[in-house]
Amino acid sequence: MSLPSEQLVLERFMKLSIATAVATIVLKVIAAAVTGSVGFLSDALESGVNLVAAVVGFVAIKIASKPADANHQFGHGKAEYVSALVEGAMIFVAAAMIIYTAIRRLMEPQPLEQPGLGLLLSLVASLLNLGVGLLLVRAGKQHRSATLQADGKHLLTDVWTSVGVLVGIAAVAVTGWLWLDPVIALAVGLNILWTGYKLLKESLSSLLSESLPKEEHAQLDTLLNELEERHDVEFTSRRTVASGRNRLVYLTMDVPGQWTVLHSHTIADRIEDAIDELFPGAEVFIHVEPAGTVHRRILRMP
Question: What stretches pass through the bilayer (predicted)?
Answer without folding.
Answer: 47-64, 84-103, 115-137, 158-177
